[in-house]
Amino acid sequence: MIVFDHVSKTYPDGTMAVEDLSFTAPNGKITVLVGPSGCGKTTSMRMINRLIDPTSGTITLDGQPTAGIDKVELRRKIGYVIQNAGLFPHRTVVDNVAALPRLLGERKQDARDRARQLLNLVGLDESFARKYPWQLSGGQQQRVGVARALATDPPFLLMDEPFSAVDPIVRAQLQDEFLKLQETIGKTIVMVTHDIDEALILGDQIAVLRQGGRLAQIASPEELLRAPADRFVADFVGTSRGYRSLGFIHADEQLTVRHTPAAPLGSSAAALPPGSDGWLVAVDEQARPLGWIHRERIGEVVTAEAVDHAGSIAAEDAPLRDLLDAALSSPSGDGIVAGADGGYLGTVGTSDIVAAIQRSKRGRARPADEEAGDRA
Ligand SMILES: Nc1ncnc2c1ncn2[C@@H]1O[C@H](COP(=O)(O)OP(=O)(O)OP(=O)(O)O)[C@@H](O)[C@H]1O
């Protein structure tokens, strides 16, 4: 657990970068610091590993004030991932990852063996180990940066805009992989980003800072979207908050899944049922949904060319946002749902999804009502 207790930082030129900042980054969770440029995110994060010393206040790691921990020991406990990976250009990938353990006295072979395991963990196979950073793509370099930060198996990890130097598609992939990795490693992470969408995807909790390093709100992604503390947070989180918050809510068991008939590729048109307003769900040989198909577009047999791909397909356990999107993008008006194995399950209607949204809103409102009842 990392605790900020009334921490302030004034630079020698008088700039108040952080003012009276207090928050807790819980163990095994990702805490994201976001806010506009110059609001003190980087200063706050660098005070944790004492690259910058606070002017006042204390920061503790699992109850131990950082001011009292030897800097070498502190850096061993806290992995650090920076933008652009910051790799040593003249060292191979494996030696980049092994660098800090070597510096701390580990045997070369042991450090390299572990480095190879870590490279594997971040999705880089053996062939990358002997390459140099300039031979890697931006996304691959960033993975090496993550592997290097994990080299001393630190319980804490600081990440400064770790995925911002790569294009949006690679960034989305790295974010996804990183969340899976965190499920395995369970580190206590503080991450800085200026990108609210990245914060909403990665954060277990998000601390929104305003100019002068003052905390505007700290909350879960869902709460930040649902109940921004003030206008500044609402504007920073951005528009379509209601729709985006559906990305964190799942359907309940009451959601009606309709049994719209399937039209397997290659099947004869004569053998097919009428469908819903003529619409059927085209499925492949493994009964996986491909998209919608209208009876009028089917000749003698169902062909892949006749499938309409406009509608997105939602997974059974997907958040309501994905189900709603599947329905809204669908030519038939209903959304296609696939099971965990990718097989076709059924379809959901827009009105049924809206009813599920309303039930979830009532469900979330209830605890507060009950609290009010308890107080009365
Ligand atoms: N060494 C320094 N000396 C004086 N002022 C500084 C120093 N480093 C940062 N600042 C100032 O402190 C404030 C906070 O800077 P910081 O880098 O922490 O912000 P940030 O939120 O990380 O910004 P960005 O998103 O642009 O990276 C800014 O006004 C900045 O100009």
TrEMBL record:
Stated EC number for the protein is 7.6.2.9
From the broadest rank down, the organism's phylogenetic lineage runs:
Bacteria, Bacillati, Actinomycetota, Actinomycetes, Micrococcales
Supply the SUPFAM superfamilies for this chain: P-loop containing nucleoside triphosphate hydrolases (SSF52540)
Q: What Pfam families does the record point to? A: ABC_tran
The residue stretches assigned to a coiled coil in this entry are: none
Task: Please provide, alphabetically and separated by semicolons, the GO molecular function terms listed in this UniProt record.
Answer: ABC-type quaternary ammonium compound transporting activity; ATP binding; ATP hydrolysis activity
- Matching InterPro entries: AAA+_ATPase, ABC_transporter-like_ATP-bd, ABC_transporter-like_CS, P-loop_NTPase
**Keywords on this record?**
ATP-binding, Nucleotide-binding, Transport
Q: Tell me what this protein is called.
A: ABC-type quaternary amine transporter
Q: Which SMART domains match?
A: AAA (SM00382)
UniProt record similarity statement: Belongs to the ABC transporter superfamily.
Q: Which residues form the ABC transporter domain?
A: 2-237
